[in-house]
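Hello again,

I reread your note about wanting to compare the complex against the isolated chains. To keep things tidy I'm splitting this into two emails, and this first one only covers the full assembly. Below are the input lines as submitted, including protein chains and any nucleic acid or small-molecule components. They are followed by the predicted structure of everything together. The single-chain runs will come separately.
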Amino acid sequence: MRILLTNDDGIHAPGLFALYEAFSQDYEVSVVAPETEMSAVGHAITLSQPLRVRSVTKGGRFYGYAVSGTPADCVKIAVKELLDHPPDMVLSGINLGRNVGMDILYSGTVSAATEAAFLGFKAAAISLDTRKTEDFTLAAQFSRAVVRFVMENGLRDGTALNVNIPALPPEQIQGVCFARQGLSRFEERFERRNDPRGNVYYWLMGETTIENGTPDTDFVALKSGMITITPIHYDLTCREELERIQKLRPPAIEV
Amino acid sequence: MRILLTNDDGIHAPGLFALYEAFSQDYEVSVVAPETEMSAVGHAITLSQPLRVRSVTKGGRFYGYAVSGTPADCVKIAVKELLDHPPDMVLSGINLGRNVGMDILYSGTVSAATEAAFLGFKAAAISLDTRKTEDFTLAAQFSRAVVRFVMENGLRDGTALNVNIPALPPEQIQGVCFARQGLSRFEERFERRNDPRGNVYYWLMGETTIENGTPDTDFVALKSGMITITPIHYDLTCREELERIQKLRPPAIEV
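Full-complex prediction:
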């Protein structure tokens, strides 16, 4: 079985290597990942610049391809140019930091998985709810269970799994649940500074997440110690609002 | 009434100016837009660089703020730092080129509207289905009708309207419809080239759109000459797949 690995933290990230180690023994693994860190790029693709591709070795052996683009670029160029055979599954991660609630729209990790789903591949994004530890053991093991789950049960066309894992010792994990995407989001502000020449600039600061959701949503379940799995797709249509406004008279064209 | 205008083609784009002209007579209009073209950036935000903000004048008068970031950055910094009063509505556009189907996930135009919706504002993205003409008359007029529609009928919290307008003379427009987001997408490929030093690089090429959908979907309706309005939100959950997998045994944690 063929697995394509990518991420948004860049090809040298330990979370990606943890997946490589977990799968390369009994899967045919390819790595195609951004050359540099690409967090918060969302579903960006690169149209105004050409993409460069560079082979990366690890311990003297070929490890994968570094691409001068975004996670979505990596998936596209992997399956359309770089790989000899299409992958059976695409995994993106392991991300340092959760990807839940509204914030998944900013996530490069998640966008790589949804891009793979667009292109017709089974895919999952794997995120670990921490910015500190680099112990990916449990998350890497669980990723293997996710791949087996998808191979056994299939996955709806165009859908990817968004998996979030608490950074807890195995015995403290409360279980695994299927959750829907919730409303939680980072509360942000800008910090205004002056540069040495007196010019103003701003840093976007991510503050604490606003917890907003019911126990069946990703962030609330994750915070209670559960591993969460959310099937996500390309469709942003708000069906409730569509149903409501379809009963109204649409805006008129004035000529 | 206060309207915030932004886009992804950059502050000097004529489509943005068309909205400015359409609204500035009887609305209080603010313009906060990217300094340069930011197409296909999706819902990217800028974390690794500070943002610069520059005042832009047009015809000797203050026109708006140019931000060294993405459309989503522009909306955030506008409402959190630059504007004295919150807008009653945020409009993104008028984009040169439609934003329909799966491709809206790549769209900077659409991401500005969804970002505004995240932040609690009423919002719409306006796109004209052409890359050639710069006649925004009908699209700008219709944008006024969209704003009136939203003011009269409200808009569900967290939801924005994605509006696509055919590039046709008014008498050839077939009507206005509420449509769901369809499956259409650009068929892409990479063009491999060699630079003057013999190194390989790749350009991502967008080919023709794969038409894929029923008449109630955005691209199919747009192609039939209809103006389409799609309510979109942050939630990527695939409900059908969630319902299906909730009946299955979840992947197990191996310790």
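For quick reference: The longest helix of chain B spans residues 137-153.

B.
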